[in-house]
Design brief:
Layout: H1 17-41, H2 53-63, H3 71-102, H4 113-139, H5 143-177, H6 190-217, H7 222-225, H8 228-247, H9 251-256, H10 263-280, H11 282-288, H12 293-317, H13 325-356, H14 367-392, H15 398-432, H16 436-439, H17 445-472, H18 477-480, H19 483-502, H20 523-526
Helix pairs in contact: 1-2, 1-8, 2-3, 3-4, 3-5, 3-6, 3-15, 4-5, 4-10, 5-6, 6-8, 10-11, 10-14, 12-13, 13-14, 13-15, 13-17, 14-15, 15-17, 17-19
């Protein structure tokens, strides 16, 4: 592989700071508005619009103005701006299923409604993975294969949106010919929501077509040599998409009817989670469906133990082999990503604690989304850190890998802070409004909640240490001395595993509700 010289320019122009700042602020404002709308209406399937990855991408473009030969800003700008529409698409696909169910038009859909979200999200995930890998190929110097990957991912996205459009149009024609009683009700905004879907889908398709043309023409093509094309055909359409989705927010569909609150939605979420975990470990995917719930948490907790063991075994073998690459790769990757897998088990414990005391109504996040939301962020963190660790193993890619690992660690810290906030809010609500289950049974929920606080704090401490470590770089004190790794990484993770073993969450299993349960009531509500 040919090394890229330091004088290599990743941009054919100096990215404009004013343009990058303007769109960074626009996306920041829209992200804040979507976050406010999401928590106000509790329309959790629209969470993709609150992640704000475009903000990070345009910060990267602004930083690149005076750093056109620096790889870090180039990576951040390309990855986050390129992949954000793929995340939007997931929420857009879910909206169509809710529109169809809100009017009782399941029999008029071309694709069975129970498979509608699965079908298009599959295509979306495939497009996301292919486009995400293209950035790594481009950085490693495989520009031709990177171009093929991007064009292939965008082509899948275009095909998915085209089929999605046809599905929506055929459904609209059928329901106009054979209207259902629900669609005639004045409070059902299905037409408005359907037109909103047409608009945002058309804008994302325009943007995807532009990206295909851009990558087909290559580095010497007009789009990659002129910055205005990116803002007109990518940035502006994405701003309009977020604005249109905010104005005609699909929350009214959820208020009119609990569209997917029963088995269909749970099946979709469990299925998506299974696919995500499959990408981490095929063994998890193989056992996920048939195993009872009580075994899923220990399974996830057991895997990082083995990964940590392999990492430190490789570190021991590197004592007399400091010049060999393989021990370095194994210990770096395995020790780095093990806490990400361990976090998945921690996230699942909170949902079990809440269910064990019948306090679903006191959770700040709907209980059916607690595990899914945090594990999804955990999976994303896993992939980012895993990709960064892979690049670090390339001699010339160390700096780029550190940037990516740093981004993954920051996301992990943000996720843990949000998780601890959720657990703390739940605890405060429980103290004010205890449930009947806490008064008439010996549920050990407080013990496990405090254990979860301790474990989360240790992983948080370790992640902050890693951020500082990679932020200081190879010449920093932390990477130049071995003891910080053992004191601030190995020891906290060891204590976290000891806490998990001593206060094992299997004690909660006898108190978990079996099958369907009655609505939850606090003591005050009962009185």
């Amino acid at each position: 592989m040919q090394l890229i010289p330091r004088s290599y320019k990743f941009w054919n122009y100096a990215p404009s700071i004013p343009a990058a700042v303007i769109f960074m602020l626009l996306f920041l404002v829209l992200t804040v508005l979507h976050s406010w709308k999401l928590f106000k209406t509790r329309t959790w399937f629209c969470i993709a619009f609150t992640i704000g990855v475009q903000v990070i991408g345009y910060i990267g473009r602004a930083v690149a103005h005076n750093n056109t030969t620096t790889m870090g800003p180039y990576i951040v700008a390309n990855i986050f701006i390129l992949l954000s529409p793929t995340l939007f698409a997931a929420s857009i696909y879910m909206t169509l299923g809710r529109i169809i169910r809100s009017v009782g038009g399941e029999h008029l859909s071309v694709i069975r409604v129970s498979r509608l979200t699965k079908t298009f999200v599959w295509g979306d995930v495939l497009s996301f993975v292919i486009q995400g890998n293209s950035s790594s190929l481009s950085i490693l110097g495989y520009t031709t294969w990177a171009k093929v990957a991007v064009v292939g991912g965008l082509a899948i996205q275009l095909i998915s949106f085209s089929i999605f459009w046809l599905t929506a149009i055929i459904f609209e024609k059928r329901i106009r010919r054979s209207p259902t009683p629900e669609c005639l009700l004045p409070g059902t905004p299905w037409q408005k929501s359907l037109y909103m879907l047409y608009t945002v889908s058309a804008l994302i398709m325009i943007r995807s077509i532009f990206r295909v043309i851009e990558y087909v023409l290559g580095n010497s093509g007009y789009p990659l040599e002129h910055e205005w094309t990116l803002y007109i055909f990518d940035s502006v359409p994405m701003v309009i998409v977020m604005a249109v989705f905010f104005v005609w927010y699909p929350s009214e569909l959820q208020r009119n009817k609990d569209i997917e609150g029963n088995a269909p939605t749970r099946a979709v979420e469990e299925w998506i989670l299974c696919v995500a975990l499959c990408a981490i470990n095929r063994r998890i995917c193989r056992f996920y469906s048939p195993l009872p719930r009580c075994y899923r948490c220990p399974l996830l907790e057991d895997i990082p133990n083995k990964i940590e063991f392999i990492g430190y075994a490789a570190r021991a073998s590197a004592y007399e082999k400091t010049g060999r690459l393989m021990p370095y790769i194994i210990q770096s990757v395995f020790i780095l990503i093990a806490p990400t897998l361990f976090a998945a088990a921690v996230y699942m414990v909170l949902a079990r604690i809440i269910r064990s005391v019948r306090a679903e109504s006191l959770s700040p996040i709907p209980i059916r989304f607690v595990t899914k939301a945090f594990v999804t962020c955990d999976v994303l963190t896993f992939f980012i850190q895993g990709g960064g660790a892979g690049l670090m193993s390339q001699g010339s890619m160390t700096n780029a890998g550190q940037y990516i690992v740093l981004a993954g660690l920051i996301l992990q810290i943000a996720t843990f802070v949000l998780f601890l906030t959720t657990a703390t809010v739940f605890k405060l609500r429980m103290d004010r409004h205890p449930t009947i289950a806490t008064m008439h049974s010996d549920v050990p929920w407080k013990k496990h909640l405090y254990s979860m606080y301790a474990i989360s704090s240790m992983i948080l401490l370790r992640s902050i240490f890693r951020v500082v470590e990679y932020g200081l770089g190879n010449d920093g004190y932390l990477l130049s001395n071995e003891w910080p790794t053992y004191i601030l990484d190995a020891l906290p993770m060891f204590l976290a595993m000891v806490c998990f073993a001593v206060w094992y969450p299997s004690e909660l299993e006898p108190y978990l509700p079996k099958g369907n349960t009655l609505p939850i009531e606090t003591i005050e509500q009962k009185v």
